[in-house]
Every structure is written in structure tokens, then in C-alpha cells.
Amino acid sequence: MNALPMAPQSDALERFSIHVEDAVWDDLRRRLAATRWPDQVVGADWDYGAELAYVRELCAYWRDVYDWRAAERELNRYEHYRTSIDGQRIHFLHAPSRHKDALPLLISHGWPGSIAEFMDVIEPLRDPEAYDGRKEDAFHVVCPSLPGYGFSEPTRTRGWDPARIADAFAVLMQRVGYARYGAQGGDWGALVTSLIGLNDAAHVVGIHTNMPLAVPADTGELSDAEKADLAVMAQWQDQEAGYQRIQGTKPQTLGFGLMDSPAGLAAWIIEKFRSWSDCGGHPESAISRDRLLTNIAIYWATGTITSSTRLYYETFRSQRMDFFAKKVTVPTGVARFQKEIMRFPRKWVEQRYNVTHWSEMPRGGHFAAMEQPALFVEDVRRFFRTVR
After folding, report:
1. CB 3.0–4.6 Å: which of 27, 111, 197, 283 could bond 328 by disulfide?
2. Global pTM exceeds 0.70
3. What is the domain partition of the chain in residue ranges?
4. Which mean pLDDT values do the consecutive 10-residue runs of the chain (388 residues) have?
5. Please, are residues 304 and 89 in contact by the beta-carbon 8 Å criterion?
6. 14-385 belongs to which homologous superfamily?
7. H or E segment at 193?
């Protein structure tokens, strides 16, 4: 099932083009056509989980209409490489700017995301003059797949926690030839980016995140708005975070179903996009159906859903979560999108980061680059102007 054959371990940068064999998609269509659909309580919506009618519609579109080859062509507009770091083969997309003095920018995704999250922001970041920007805002974009995700191979050994990923990405940037760079991330990418800012400060000019992290801090009385945000987070943790316990304790068991059933995989992922995005209850009001399916299809084609969920297991057992004990001192930009699920008070965030830029976004949710690419790009530009 894995579309990526094993390759010899090497610290060289190995160029490749994304291509998934037709047999993978023939098998997908056969499996979708043979899906055993679950029953559903009369009148149920999304309150029990992924809603049956929508998932059936999405899977029918995936089987009969969705065009992976078009997605491949879009992805292959950019340079793709794999390289071996700490015994793990890691993939990255490289989109250098035509402006030689552009700032290198490492962008990291999370779960259940992929490099597909950034397809609408790469061009504005690397070629700002074509998108209402200035050449001084240009970036050389480096967008890796997290180890165990997408076109990086599945992890084979224990211990691939966010700190190890951050260390690997710092090596990656040096290997590509970027000794001075910025970093950006949300979801797992936010934690990886924070750890890069903490542990590779000698090379990082600043970090930007759309999901700033924090722990409770004695910073005085909270405002009513801050208390409301904490209440929303508490409700989310109570009603929406069951996936964390499953993926953080028994990811391998979960993997048997998700690896075998594309409908099950689609339901598991799409429910998160629906509940975490600023979509008014329908995921496609925030992100196009084809973009959603490209993200899901990457997990299916590469066979990495099980290894992706293991990141939760590794993190829950990690002994290297320095971020929660030390402060990130490099300049930090924050874009807090209105429907982001993590809504820590700014004063708590400032205990963990050297916050030099803070934006409250009028709309958008957890998948900021997919939902609101123009707002995302403009805030990244604004922050990095201060540290170039």
C-alpha cells in the first residue's frame, strides 16, 4: 500500500517527483465501492461524530470525481526532496524565491494535516510582488512532511517526539544551505516551531505561529473574554479531544481500521476539519472539497496514517518537553485566528515566548493557511519584516 519504496539511508538531498501508481487508486475505488457503512440514529447530525450522509457523499466524490493527477501536478510545481536525518527519511518541498536575498522560511504542518495545507500560501510567500506584496517580503519556502507523515516514510523506531523532529528540521535547514532562517507552524507544527526557536536560536531570526502554546501562569486577574476563551478550551477538551487519548495510548490498534478503510480514514480526518475550522458547521464552507480530499489522499497513498497518530503516543511519553520549562527568547509573532481551538490568554503566552507581534484575526480557525490564506500570508509578512 505504501507508495514510497524504501531507499538507502543517505544524508544527500535526493530529488524526486510525486507519483502514485494507478493501482493504488484502483484499489481505493474498489474499497470505497465495497464500504460497509455504519448505521446512524434517526435525526443525528455531527453530535455522535462524522455524519453518515456527508461522509457517503464525500466518499462517492472521492471514488468517482476527485482527480489525484491534478493534485499531483499542483504539488509537482515545486522541488521535492528526501534526505535521511537521525536514521529517518524525511521529505520536504522546496520553493525558493527568484529573489536571492529572500529569507528562508521553514513551515511545519500538524495532524491531520500535510503539505497540502500550504498550497495556497507558497506562491504569495515566495513571489510577493505577484500577490500585492513587496520583493522585500520574499521567502525561500521549505515545507517538510513531519517524520511519519505523507511523503516522509513511516517512523520505524521509538522516540520521534516533537523535540526530535525540531532537531531534525534544524539539521534539514542547514543541509539545504540556510544558516539563517525563520520558522512558522500551527498544531504540531506550532510545538515543533517553538522548540526550534528554543533550541536553534543561533540560526533562527524569529518564529511565527497561529497556535501559541502556554500553561497556566500567575499573571493576575483574567478578563471576561479570557475566561470565556478558557471555557471554550475546557469544553473542547471534554467533548472533542477523545482522539488524543486513543492516538496517545493505542495508535496501533486504531491503525488497523484506518489503513484498511478509506471511508474510515476520511471520516476520522474530516470530522476534525469540520469541528476545528471556522466553517459554520460545514467543512467545505472553509476549505474546498478537492483540497480536503488531497490532504486525505496523501495519508492513504503513502500509508502513513498509523505512523502519524504515533506522534501523540511519543509526545505523551516524551522526556524532552523543554518548551514547558524554558522560555523561547527569539522574537515571536502570533496570529490568533478567531476560531482557533487553543485560546490561551496572551499574558500566559508571553510567559513562554518573547512576543513582539500579536494579531487578532477576524475569521479563520485551526487550519489557518487553508482557511484564510490571504490573512495568513499578510501576517507572516508583517512579522518577519521586523526581524529580517
Report:
1. 197
2. yes
3. 14-385
4. 47 95 98 98 94 98 98 98 97 97 98 98 98 96 98 95 97 98 98 96 98 90 94 94 96 98 98 97 97 98 98 89 81 97 96 97 98 98 97
5. no
6. Alpha/Beta hydrolase fold, catalytic domain (3.40.50.1820)
7. helix 188-199
